[in-house]
Structure formats: C-alpha cells, structure tokens
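Record 1 of the preview.
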Amino acid sequence: MNKVSEIVGCITDIAPLHWQESWDNAGLLVGDANMLIDKALVTLDVTEEVIDEAIQGGYHLLISHHPVIYRPLKHLLPENTIERIIMKAIKNDIAIACMHTNLDNSYLGVSKWLADRLGLKNPEVLEPMKVEEDVTTGGGMIGYLENDMDEKDFLAMVKKNLGCQALRHSEFLGKKIRKVAVCGGSGFFLLENVKHCNADAYVTADVKYHDFFEADGQLLLVDAGHYETEQFTKELIADAIIKKFCKFAVSISRVKTNSINYFV
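->
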C-alpha cells in the first residue's frame, strides 16, 4: 500500500506543479493525500463513465491529464457533469489528481511522447520557458525524421501512428518533410516559434479555420486532433509510476474519452 501523495509524486518528480501555467489547476483536486491505496486508474479525461469504471474496479485513485475542476465551484449539486463526478468520487473514496500543463511543459512530458511516436530524432523543446537545475522546460518539441518524406506520405504516417480517423491540414507546398515540430493539444500559439525554427511541418490540434492561413506557404500545418495528440499521456503517467513503484498496480482506463466523433 502507498499513500496517494507518493503515487502523485511519481509524476510531479518529472513535472513539478510549479511548471503549470498560471491559469491551470493541476495537482490533487479531490481526496486525501494520506489515504493508502494499492492501485490507480489513469485516463486522459475524467468522465462519469471513468468514475464508474474506477468504482467497479475498486480503484481509489484516478489520475488524469485534463483537470476535472477548472473553475471554482459554488456548490455541489447533481445538476451538471462536473459536480456529479465530484460527488460520486467523494462518496466512493476516490481521489482525483490531474497533471496538465506541468506535464505539457516537461521535457519528458506530452510532446516528447508525441515526438517519439512520430519517430523524431534528437527532439528539443520548441519554446524554452525556464531552466531549473539544468532542466529545460517549455512547450512543444522539434526534431527530425530519419529520412525525407513527401507530404502525403508524411500525413499517412501521422494518421497511422496516431490512429487518426482524419487529418486537417494547410495546402500542400510540394516540399519534402524532414524537420518536424509537434505540440500535444492546442498548440497553435507556438506557430511563430515553429516558423522561426524553419520546420517543414507542424503537428498539433485545435487549429481554427483562419489559423490555417497563417502557415503562409512556409510549412505544412497539421491538425491531428486534441485527443489523438495527447492520448499517449496515459502511458506516460503509468510509466512514471511503475518505474518508481514496480509492484504498484496501474491500469489505463478502457473508456474512450474522445469527445469528438467523425462521420465519414
């Protein structure tokens, strides 16, 4: 048995909470840090279905990427999804910890796992934010494909490796792709950094209609989906726990939490 705080500490060791953005709400959000537990369930999002899965499986710690509480709660009533989730978690002694932009900003975090999934070599932080004890933190990653790829072959690889149903992208430029930038989740804010680094392509998510014009003939801008670019965060969290507590039971939720569906 381990304390909730010990298990959560496995993630904050590689992504301290003070690395999160000022608007974020990462950390232990529900439950007792001193509660003893023998297993944890990992998910990208906290939904009612995930809470039910935790109850049925006897999990008393749920760790997600996206915070279940973003805004202050004025009451706890079963009137909306968030409040129902919190109430059900408390009733069933389920602690909820969320590791969001602190994990986004970690060199070993979300974008690093995305870069690895796409086979990028020598990845570096795209937008360094700060350096603490020789550790560079910041948003996104940039690296190189092993070999040049045609644009359509590159998109096919991204689609396959991320399991995307579809990709949205800017116009083809007829250029080879070799230097690639990535940012899991909503990463359009890093586009100027991507251009400055002379990347051939940028893979991220949540790109708006007018944003695609900002590629401006300089690179291939690819929207691969928010869930799709962050899905490996579940494995990242589970891996961090197992490395420190090899006998602690960690499971990845079987619930599909992607809120976007496609009709093709």
